[in-house]
Amino acid sequence: MLGAAAARALAFVTARSTGPPLDRAVRVTLNFHPERVVPGLVDGGAYVSQFVTGTSSGGLTAFEGGDRWRWESRMFGGAYDSAAAHERPVYGGLNFRLSPYGASPRFGSSHLRLKPDVPRRTTFCYPDSVTEPEHFGVADRMALIALALADQRDPLDDYVEAHVHGGVSVETDAEALVLDPSHRGTPVEEAALRLPCPVEWHPGFHLHVDELRRHPDFRGPEFVALGERIAVDGVLTPKVVGDNAGRHHPQDLKKVWHLLARFGRRTP
């Protein structure tokens, strides 16, 4: 059962949505960096928003009056303005391209793939809510895929944003946790195997420094240089980036991750 705030938010977005029903083969995915998130999934059993955690792979503005609070107030008609942090939606993407990496890998190498009934309580926008978009969708009215397919955006920005209302339980809502193969045999895999959902592996992110050096203009030459310094045997992987948390500024590592996510995808 949706709470009152979630029900109001869903109704508000539904009234502003158009288009055909969503194909049930398309899944909502929640991308994240697993070394940060998987332990919390094991301990708490749920995926929660940055209003609860105070952390994010994007901007840190989830507080009353902050940008994230303001964007949600606008998107959901003020439904969550007085809601508790744990009542707010969690963010992911609509994997309309059926990518093995999830809908929005700019936010992390791993993802939860949610079950086919979850879109019934999910709202969508295009493009990302940071842009204060004008186009919205729900499962029964989904014009956003056509908009995204007609657009020309960088692959890291090529996603339809999803907002799952009513909480995400790993046990009841997750179809699988999909990890990068660099985490095989690590504490991330050990923790993941304790979750009440299957664990799967995508083809992997793998970027040699020779290729990294070809892209100084993508996020800046200083982040190429940082990537070169932290690479192991000349290679960047999600595990390498994660192992450097705490050794470098998180926003700098985020830019290195963007380089890896953009140019290091292995084809299936």
Keywords summarizing the entry:
single chain; 268 residues; alpha+beta; eight-stranded mixed sheet; 12 strands; globular
Q: What can you tell me about this protein's structure?
A:
There is one protein chain. The chain has 268 residues and is α+β, with helices and mostly antiparallel strands. The chain is 34% helix and 17% strand. α10 packs across α12. 42% of the residues are buried. InterPro entries: DUF3626. This is DUF3626 domain-containing protein.
Please list the strands of the largest sheet in the order they lie side by side: 6-5-7-3-1-4-9-10
Helical percent range? 25-40%
Rounded mean pLDDT score: 94
Shape annotation: globular
Low-confidence stretches: none
Biggest sheet descriptor: 8 strands, mixed
The helix tally amounts to 12
Distance from N terminus to C terminus (CA atoms, Å) equals 38 Å
Strand content: 15-25%
Strand segment tally? 12
Gyration radius, to the nearest Å? 18 Å
Series of H and E elements: HEHEHHEEEEHEEHEHEEHHHEHH
Identify the quaternary structure here.
single chain
Summing up helix and strand content along with how strands pair, one would put the structural category as alpha+beta
Protein name: DUF3626 domain-containing protein
Organism: Saccharothrix longispora
How does the SSE layout of this entry go?
Elements: H1 4-14, E1 28-32, H2 34-44, E2 46-47, H3 50-53, H4 67-75, E3 90-94, E4 110-114, E5 122-126, E6 135-138, H5 144-150, E7 160-164, E8 168-169, H6 170-173, E9 174-179, H7 187-192, E10 199-201, E11 207-208, H8 209-212, H9 216-219, H10 221-230, E12 235-236, H11 238-243, H12 250-263
Parallel strand pairs: 9-10
Antiparallel strand pairs: 1-3, 1-4, 2-8, 3-7, 4-9, 5-6, 5-7, 11-12
InterPro entries: DUF3626
Pfam families: DUF3626 (PF12294)
Organism: Saccharothrix longispora
